[in-house]
């Protein structure tokens, strides 16, 4: 399931958000086709870490039905990031141009903020 999310995020945010910046588009396509070795090594590291942690720990609990807190953060941040991309970044091309990567920072910021808040909130409840 996370593979599908990964392809969606790379295609949606990586390609559409930076379409006019050829260098970033090529780098995102390399990631999408597993030609970026830094990404591949990180993916292998995460896979090994997940397998190891699943062998040592019990399965994670589901909250809110079948959704985990990480899934909720992912879904909400994709929606907010898409709104920011289409209604803020794309509407001000003079400010968010291909040489200025601030648009990418604005698009990814909901994920980072929600992730930190969810980690903080669920640590307090444990």
Number-wise, the strands total 0
For the terminal residues, how far apart are their CA atoms?
27 Å
Helix content: over 70%
Largest sheet report: none
Label this structure with key terms:
126 residues; mainly alpha; 5 helices; 72% helix
What do these coordinates show?
With 126 residues, the protein is mostly helical. It is 72% helix and 0% strand. The chain has five helices and no strands. Helix 4 packs antiparallel against helix 5.
List strands and helices in order, with pairings.
Elements: H1 2-16, H2 22-32, H3 37-56, H4 69-89, H5 102-125
Helix pairs in contact: 1-2, 4-5
Q: Summary?
A:
It contains 5 helices and no strands.
């Amino acid at each position: 399931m996370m593979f599908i999310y990964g392809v969606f995020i790379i295609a949606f945010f990586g390609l559409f958000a930076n379409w006019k910046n050829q260098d970033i588009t090529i780098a995102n396509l390399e990631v999408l086709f597993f030609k970026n070795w830094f990404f591949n090594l990180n993916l292998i590291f995460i896979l090994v870490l997940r397998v190891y942690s699943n062998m040592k720990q019990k399965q994670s609990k589901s909250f809110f039905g079948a959704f985990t807190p990480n899934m909720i953060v992912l879904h909400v941040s994709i929606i907010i990031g898409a709104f920011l991309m289409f209604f803020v970044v794309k509407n001000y091309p003079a400010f968010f141009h291909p040489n200025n990567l601030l648009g990418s920072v604005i698009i990814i910021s909901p994920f980072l903020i929600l992730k930190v808040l969810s980690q903080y909130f669920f640590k307090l409840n444990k």
